[in-house]
Amino acid sequence: MERVYINTISGHEGKEVTLKGWLYNIRSSGKLIFPEFRDGTGLIQGVVSKNEVDEKVWNDFNDLTQESSVIVTGLVTKHPKKEDTYEIQVKNLEIIQIAEPYPITPKEHGVDFLSDRRHLWLRSQRQAAILRIRNELVQSIREYMYNNGFILFDTPIFTPNACEGTSTLFATDYFDLGKAYLSQSGQLYAEAGAIALGKVYTFGPTFRAENSMTRRHITEFWMMEPEMAYYDIDDNMDLIEDFLEYVIQRVLKNCSKELKSIGRDTSKLENVLKPFPRITYEEAVDILMEKDIPLIKKTENGEEHIRPFPFGEDFGAPHEEAIVENFNKPVMVHRWPAEAKAFYMKRDPKDPKIVLGVDVLAPEGFGEIIGGSQREDNLELLKQRIIEHDLPIEAFSWYIDLRRFGSVPHSGFGLGLERLVSWVCNLDHIREAIPFPRRPNRITP
Ligand code: 4AD
Ligand code: MG
């Protein structure tokens, strides 16, 4: 008997096939049992008729529990009423294991209960659909990069220096060499790659020791970072636009079934077509003033609301939401006050208080999904910034070298994969965007 997967079942109508999977659900009515099977690729309903199967098969079905592993054979038929739906008329059943009482049932469970059982929660149809969408996004990102001449350039996770500020570093002992830090970003290494290979990207896990319990923060996340020689900030924004359009349009095409199954309203994503609005930080602050959105500072006795929003401060979730509200596409906010951004960003030749950075804010209030910039390519200015940011200059000596030997204007950006997944899937919380999320209060399972 041919072993088939549920997602290709329509090609086997009228044939007898074997499915290898698990029992998802079961109900019976008199002389019929309706077991529902899953095999990782989808769900299918079986029909077991007491008059058509051996007594042993009938009795075995009565013993089956949720998530028992089973191999079934039967005839593939079209569902009598439902369009595009198939069933399996079960002939035989082989039980691989009878599962113990399964803790996750179709009733509602609390999020802590589910998070403690993430290794099992992943089997739910919704979680599996989200992870298939994540898979498609990763594939489309890699294909875009490959098709556009970017070379994959893997960067190290153990690093001797910070990239995005010293306050969010995870340190670990590294033999006789003192401390190593888990990478916050592969960017600095990708810059060496761009000078060597022209256009590169790095795509791997990154770490931030940020004690934030928001719906957008995890301590270990995947970041895709392209870096391009001879690209200025405008070239960088052109690339971001073209790249995001490709990735979003492709996931809409290739994951329409999964997006539908998780209830995503895709009309908002269909809108993600070039060009995207480009506004300066100053224009973004004007929007905040117009909407009277204050800066909220935590103080000893609560919160202080500062109006109007002061120039120079970074945006939080309420600001990002207010900025994108008027647009139905990702918004590129560029030209930031230097004090809000990292040491490596190049100053605007027109205004030394401003850096040539860009943040991309996703629509529907999902906030920053991309951060990027043109890089400081001047040797003396770069050294000065490292000192101003109180960073240990020796650890950056190799990085500074890049400005000694054939320095060129160059740019790049970093896309947070789980932020992208959260937006595309319209998730309430980033914890569902990665198989095993790491947060300040959770390292298991
Ligand atoms: O804006 P960030 O900090 O930029 C960088 O790391 C640059 N070195 C990137 C570059 O230019 N090559 O981070 C980039 C993106 C953010 O826009 C966000 O999507 C994601 O990484 N990100 C996080 N995602 C989940 N949890 C966190 N704690 C994140 N911190 C950043
Ligand atoms: Mg950022």
Q: Number of helical runs?
A: 13
Which geometry do the CA atoms define? elongated
Q: N- to C-terminal separation?
A: 38 Å
Q: What structural class do helix, strand and pairing data support?
A: alpha+beta
List how many beta strands DSSP finds.
20
Average pLDDT score: 96
Which percent range fits the helix content?
Answer: 25-40%
**How would you characterize the largest beta sheet?**
9 strands, mixed
Alpha carbon gyration radius: 26 Å
Oligomeric state, counting identical vs distinct chains:
single chain
Low-confidence stretches: none
**Percentage of residues in DSSP E strands:** 25-35%
How would you describe what is shown here?
Strands 7, 11, 12, 13, 16, 17, 18, 19 and 20 form a nine-stranded mixed beta sheet that branches. Strands 2-3-4-6-5 form a five-stranded mixed barrel. Strands 8-10-9 form a three-stranded antiparallel beta sheet, with no helix packed on it. It is of the alpha+beta class. The mean pLDDT is 96. It has 13 helices and 20 strands. Strand 18 (351-362) and strand 19 (367-374) form a beta hairpin. The structure holds 4-amino-1,4-dioxobutan-2-aminium adenosine-5'-monophosphate and magnesium ion. Residues 163-164, 185, 187, 208, 210, 217-218, 221, 223, 225, 368-373, 412-414, 416, 418-419 line the site of 4-amino-1,4-dioxobutan-2-aminium adenosine-5'-monophosphate.
Name some characteristics of this structure.
20 strands; 5-stranded mixed barrel; elongated; 445 residues; 9-stranded mixed beta sheet; alpha+beta; binds magnesium ion; binds 4-amino-1,4-dioxobutan-2-aminium adenosine-5'-monophosphate
